[in-house]
Amino acid sequence: MVERISIQGTRSSPEVDCDPATKTLRLEGESYPENTFDFYKPLVAWLEDVLAENDGGSDPVTLDVALAYLNTGSIKSLMDMLDRMDEAHEAGTAVAVVWRCDAENERVVELAEELLEDLSLPYEIKTE
Amino acid sequence: MSTEDRTETRIDALLSAVAALEESGASDDALCALRQEVEWLAGRYRRLDRNLHKLSRVSDRMQSQILELNDKLRKASITDPLTGLANRRGAADALSTQTRAALDHGTGFCVALLDIDHFKAVNDTHGHDVGDEVLEEVSARLTSSLRDNDMIARWGGEEFLVMLRDTSIADAALLIEGFLEALRERPVMTAAGPLKITVSGGLSPHDVTDDDFDHTILKADRALYAAKDGGRDQWRFAED
Predict the structure, then answer these.
(1) How far is A114 from chain B (nearest CA, A)?
(2) Which terminus, N or C, of chain A has the lesser number of Cβ atoms within 10 Å?
(3) Where is the GGDEF domain (chain B) (predicted)?
């Protein structure tokens, strides 16, 4: 059984909730932690485990992103997560990506589009 | 595991498989498995390559945004937000550049300090919003009566510093006199109605052999106070 990961947000790192019950990895806040790859490594591993454990049910494994700022390392880590989800999607696993942006934060909207547009998995960019 | 780590692991396994095939006569199944591995790696390689390009684009964009923001901050740090003129820091930067140019090339300049007369009374009588209107209008008139090459700064509350580049003291005097006269003749229109605003000034040429502008400002300041003492709405030359 995959365990839940909850991390409180700080000024430079997002609030994290990886919930196996809903198969959702949620990131909210700003992301420029001191050691970006160390921060994201367990999250990427969690996602891999949930995708591997997926019972083929119709509930999608969901990545729910609400990040207002990402440093380059965070973008790279997100790309890794998205790649893993895209592969799983191609192999028949139900996945979903929701990216929530403040409509006025054009930079993040643009970034979300850039990262998601050429993937085959279903995604939604929600501007709020 | 990152996509790179996974790919490295698969490459190592692939190389071992190739070595094993070379040692024993390869079967079709083994070759098929090998081909699948190569296809997997090719797929990964393309993904990595695509991600690298995306990341470069995003990073380039972030970099130009940072540069733009830096530029805005730099401008904001040397600008007075009310009048849009240089602030004290912007003026000090321009003065020190000009002081170096004066030392190196002997190009002279003059400094004028101008102070709005009885400004406290404007604020006390009509409120700070009207005071702000007066500051904005005096700034605008100062800008339009001087030349593009002159540097105008809000030096303090109601005090302006003007640096007149490559200008003789006689020409500087004409410019300052012209400004005082124009201001005297046309009241400033405010929310409290037209106000008669005047300015006092002190004018000092900069000594091109001086490596500091503090002395020039000090002299202009003394001249300004002499003008105030002399009854305001007038300007004075600096005395050594």
Answers:
(1) 7
(2) N
(3) 107-240
- Which residues of B are part of the catalytic machinery? 158
* Domain A5-127, CATH: 3.30.750
A-chain residue closest to B3, CA distance: A80
Give the residue from B48, B77, B106 where a domain finishes. B77
Report d(CA A8, CA A17) in Å as an integer: 9
| ipTM score | 0.79
Say if CB B170 and CB B191 are below 8 A apart. no
How many C-beta neighbours within 10 Å does residue B153 have?
26
The beta-carbon neighbor of B57 closest among A76, A107, A114 is A114
Residues B96 and B132 in one domain: yes
A72/B59 Cβ within 8 A? yes
Query: Is position B83 within any domain?
Result: no
Q: Is residue B82 included in any domain, yes or no?
A: no
DSSP state at residue B148: T
B128-145 vs B169-185: helix crossing angle, rounded to 10: 140
Q: What range defines the domain where residue B44 resides?
A: 3-77
Number of CB pairs, chain A paired with chain B, less than 8 A apart: 32
> Is A55's pLDDT higher than 80?
no
- Residues 46-75 of chain A with CB under 8 A from chain B are 48, 72, 75
